[in-house]
Amino acid sequence: MKNNRNTITICFTNNKGGSGKSTSCANLGYELSAAGKKVLLIDGDMQLNLSLSFFEEEKVLTMAESSRNLYYAIREKRDLAEYIISTDYQNLDLIPSSTLMSQVEYELFTMMQREFILKKCLHGIKSEGAYDYILIDAPPTLGAWVINILCASDYVIVPVEASPWGLFGLANMFDFLKELREVSDARIMGVLITKVDERKNYYRQTREILENYKEIHVFDSVIHVDSTVEWAQDASKPVAVYKKSARSAAEFKKLTEEVIGYGSR
Length: 265
Description:
Radius of gyration: 17 Å
CATH class of the domain at 8-153 and 227-258: Alpha Beta
Strand content: 15-25%
CATH architecture of the domain at 8-153 and 227-258: 3-Layer(aba) Sandwich
CATH topology of the domain at 8-153 and 227-258: Rossmann fold
Low-confidence stretches: none
Order of helices and strands: EHEHHHEEHHEHEHEHEHHH
Largest sheet: 8 strands, mixed
Shape: globular
Distance between the termini: 32 Å
CATH superfamily of the domain at 8-153 and 227-258: P-loop containing nucleotide triphosphate hydrolases
C-alpha cells in the first residue's frame, strides 16, 4: 500500500576527505528516526563508514562481499528496495556499500543516461512514500558517481571541518554544483561546520569566510570536537545511543531540528 510520505532525499558531500560526512549523515539519520521520521540511509562510499556506524566490521565486510549491496544494485540497475537492511533502531534502515564501489565510475561509463541510474533505482522507494528522509553519504570526489547522487537528491548538506585546510576546494565544490543545475535539481540546504575547537580561531575564521557566500546557508548548529564521537564509532553506535549526555549528541539533535524545520524557513 502506498504511504502518504513526501520523501526528502539529502546527500552529504564534500570533495575533501575528513570533513565529517559519514558521521554527520549517520547521526542525523538516527536523530531523525528518534524524532519519529522513517529514514533510509544509503552508503555510497567504498570506505563503508556509514555502514560501520551501525554494524560491526565483520557484518559490514560480509555485506560488502555479498551481492546484496549498492554496487550490485547500480550495476544491474535494480530497484533499491531489494537491498534494504534493517538496523537495530526503529524507523532506520540502510543500504550497505561495497569496496567494489571503486569500480562504479567505470560501470556508469558504459550505461545510457548514466547520470540518472541511482535516481531510477530509487524511483520505486520514493513513489511508495515509504520514507520521510533518504540520506546518502557520498564519497569525497567530484566524479560521475557523485553526479548520480546529486541527480537523485533534493538537497545537499556540505560538512566543512573548522581547520586550516577545511575550506580547501570548497569553491570548486560550489562551482561543481552550479554546473549541474541543468541535470540536477538538488539545492544546498546548508553548510555544517564540524570538528570545532573553541580554543582555536579556526571556527570563527571558517564561519566568516562561509558567510561571504551570500547565497549559501550556514547551519546555526555546529559539531564540536568530542571524543565520544570516536568511541561511538568504535562501538558502531550513534552518539546519542552510546552516551546520551554527550555534547555532540545534543548538537546532532539541534541539527535535526534545523533540518526538519528547513521547509518553514
